[in-house]
Design a protein that fits this description.
Number of helices: 23
Radius of gyration: 30 Å
Number of strands: 30
Structural class: alpha/beta
Distance between the termini: 69 Å
Length: 747
């Protein structure tokens, strides 16, 4: 029976969950961190078992931070008479009905370091089979499932439960069977902070000091706020010690050391007993001192892993550090500091708010939607009647990324920069001209912008704007991580090895090494001849790259799109390719196929595959058109990467890449067509194509088919219900009827 306390809003949503389960196979509970999801679900289990005693609950939880043990402890604290256990208890229990088993994701996720051994996996599935044979219903609860969605979907498919309840603070699906608890309900109940204060005092610190050297200064502001909160708790006679969380996105050793050194300088060495770390293989000996309201630790250094489902109500301040120059802040991380330590508000903003300090100037809400949210991967078998189409496949033997002529990169980038920034056409770049017309920034100071304000909910955080900026003199050593990040991103934009890109940048913009004996006279003359900005010191050069990286990336991307540079081309391997005997496609997990496409080369290829975003609009229209067009006999949908699929090679500025055309079809008269689907036209008449390299791929397929005159080809685009095709030239303007013709004119 349920013996805990439940708040009215929790009771309302628990009753709604019971009603939804009566009508739906799968239900999603979407609720903010700190809303008491575990208590609510425990009450739900008790009520559900009253009506369905022949049920066993499998509660799957992430292993990071010991979440399954936290959930199990909470369940045991608020229920009585409902037996519980772990995965091994479930395997060994003769009659598991009426019980709840908490299973660590990492015990069953074969991609992790801690895996359920193969024999135990078989025992688990054998136990599941016994439950089905004995008429025992299995109800699966999937906690924080967005972190392990693929594994969750795999086990749902294998276990075949009667119901699935997915629990998350991040929505993973939309539909009628979503039970959503709003932030305002939880705030009104006093369970979470009434406001999220972002970068309080940062703009004032910049005004007072005229600089913000780097993220480490945020530690001092966070500690100042911690002391203010601690003083107010003590004034009220509360034994609560506020905790500062310091988050490292990547957990780089050099950054962890920098932060520990900074804390030591502030008076908090590791030997003080006030600093704890939670990284892989590095946990404190007494972890209860983290979660206890009066725990000894004042600072906790952690990586992303602890951010999932972790419960520490005294955590009030989060410092999110940047280990690269352009990171985004995921606002769901704020959930770690939103819980109220005594599950109530105090009527004072200092205590009722939580505090975030970060120099990230772009916030993201939730996690990127994945196809696996709504689609399962299924294997399809080739029909016996499928045609024996054989094509010459092209694949690269290695990468061109390292086969670039460095001097060619300098020349092409030089021309690209002159084209973009030399508006008067005199063949040189001038700082004043670049500043005034293109917004380039020069000097030795790094510019900083960030967000400041108070938001009521995490969603409100998305509405805040960057309202303060700072600057500091660049330090080539201390700011090295920001400089390296800028160089990496610029190299990626043009598609060459970072060392080659760095060489080009140095030749064009860096301080001249004209007296360095390690360079030949020819190399020195080449640099003199190609230098675009001649008077920058090393500090000015590095600041130029960091402050202008987005502008440089834009120029470099245009070069990659429009120019062809000299490379030492690696070998193109050619092999005979045929339609695979088996192929995996994503089909919608909720929508059953109402139509099977007879012309597709695979058995049971249904219309529950042709659903966005699994297929684009043009792809859906094209496959429907093929199915209904008499002259089309067979249709094959190619994969988009991998050895099993048909590919050719296309050229970018300084490298080549694989191109996997979307479709291979055969007509009733035996013609074989290779076709690529692209976006059509928006409502205002502009191009809806999102592939920046469409023209390059078009030319590559055109050239390939010129060497194979027995093949036919084209690029296809859908506008409304009409498909248009071109195999003459590429034009973004699909309304250009001299290029884009109705597909029926070709086929």
């Amino acid at each position: 029976m349920f013996t805990g306390d439940i708040i009215p809003f929790q009771s309302k949503h628990e009753e709604s969950l019971l009603r939804k389960c009566a009508d739906h196979y799968e239900v999603i509970l979407y609720a903010p961190t700190g809303s008491g999801k575990t208590v609510l679900v425990s009450r739900f289990i008790d009520d559900y078992l009253d009506e369905n005693p022949n049920t066993v609950f499998l509660w799957l939880c992430p292993g990071a931070g010991g979440l399954e043990r936290q959930s199990q402890d909470t369940f045991e604290a608020v229920t009585s008479g409902i037996p519980d256990g772990d995965v091994y208890s479930f395997i060994n229990e003769p009659d598991p009905r009426g019980r709840v088993y908490f299973i660590n994701w990492d015990k069953i996720n074969k991609k992790s370091n801690i895996v359920l051994r193969e024999g135990e996996h078989k025992d688990l599935m054998t136990k599941v089979l016994h439950c089905h044979n004995d008429g025992i219903d299995i109800f699966m609860l999937i906690d924080e499932e967005h972190k392990y969605r693929d594994t969750a979907n795999e086990y749902v498919a294998n276990i075949q439960p009667v119901h699935v309840l997915r629990i998350s603070a991040t929505p993973v699906s939309k539909g009628d069977a979503v039970e959503e608890i709003k932030d305002d309900e939880v705030i009104a109940a006093g369970l979470i902070a009434s406001g999220i204060s972002i970068n309080e005092g940062v703009s004032q610190a910049i005004q007072e000091n005229n600089n913000l050297d780097d993220d480490l200064q945020l530690l001092e502001l966070a500690d100042k706020k911690r002391k203010e909160i601690l003083g107010e708790y003590e004034k009220r006679g509360l034994k609560i010690r506020p905790l500062v969380l310091i988050q490292f996105p990547n957990g780089r050793e050099d950054w962890i050391k920098r932060v520990k050194d900074a804390l030591t300088d502030m008076g908090y060495p590791e030997t003080s007993g006030l600093v704890a770390s939670w990284f892989s293989g590095d946990h404190p000996d007494n972890p209860e001192q983290i979660s206890n309201l009066d725990g000894q630790y004042a600072f906790l250094l952690f990586k992303q892993a602890i951010a999932t489902g972790w419960d520490c109500p005294r955590a009030k301040i989060l410092v999110k550090l940047r280990e690269g120059g352009t990171e985004r802040f995921n606002i769901q991380t704020v959930g770690r500091i939103r819980r109220m330590p005594e599950r109530k508000h105090y009527g004072l903003a200092l205590l009722d708010n939580c505090y975030l300090y970060t120099l990230d100037n772009e916030f993201t809400e939730g996690l990127t939607t994945s196809l696996s949210d709504s689609f399962y991967t299924y294997q399809y078998r080739r029909k016996l009647t499928a045609p024996n189409i054989l094509l010459e496949k092209e694949s690269l033997d290695g990468s061109d990324r390292f086969a670039v002529n460095p001097e060619a990169v300098v020349k092409v980038v030089r021309q690209g920069m002159l084209k973009a920034c030399d508006l008067n056409g005199d063949g040189v770049l001038e700082k004043d001209e670049m500043e005034k017309t293109k917004g380039y920034i020069f000097g030795t100071k790094l510019k900083t912008s960030a967000i400041e304000g108070v938001a009521r909910t995490t969603h409100d955080m998305m509405k805040l704007n960057s309202i303060f900026g700072g600057e500091h003199q660049i330090n080539n050593h201390d700011d090295g991580f920001i400089i390296r990040d800028a160089k990496r991103r610029i190299a990626a934009a043009i598609g060459v090895d970072e060392n080659i890109s760095n060489n080009a940048l140095s030749v064009l913009f860096g301080p001249g090494d004209y007296y360095n004996p390690i360079f030949s006279d020819e190399e020195k003359e080449f640099e003199r001849k190609n230098k675009l900005l001649t008077d920058m010191s090393l500090r000015e050069y590095n600041a130029f790259l960091v402050n202008n990286k987005e502008r440089l990336i834009e120029v470099f991307e245009q070069i990659s799109l429009n120019e062809i540079g000299e490379i030492k081309e690696t070998t193109i391997k050619k092999s005979q390719w045929g339609i695979p005997a088996y192929q995996y496609y994503n089909q919608h997990k909720k929508m059953k196929a109402t139509k099977v496409y007879q012309k597709n080369v695979y058995d049971n290829y249904g219309n529950n595959i042709l659903i966005a975003p699994n297929r684009t609009y043009t792809e859906i229209m094209f496959e429907e058109w093929c199915e209904g067009y008499d002259k089309v006999k067979h249709v094959y949908k190619n994969g988009d990467k991998g050895e099993d699929f048909f590919s050719i090679v296309y050229r970018r500025a300084f490298r080549r890449n694989h191109f996997y055309p979307d479709y291979i079809i055969q007509t009733t008269d035996g013609q074989v067509w290779i076709l690529e689907a692209k976006g059509g036209m928006t409502a205002d008449g502009s191009s809806n194509n999102i592939d920046k390299y469409a023209s390059k791929k078009f030319e590559a397929l055109k050239e390939y088919c010129s060497r194979h005159p027995e093949l036919h080809w084209g690029f296809v685009r859908a506008v409304g219900s009409q498909l248009y095709i071109s195999n003459t030239v590429w034009s973004e303007d699909v309304s250009n009827d001299s290029v884009w013709k109705p597909i029926e004119e070709y086929l």
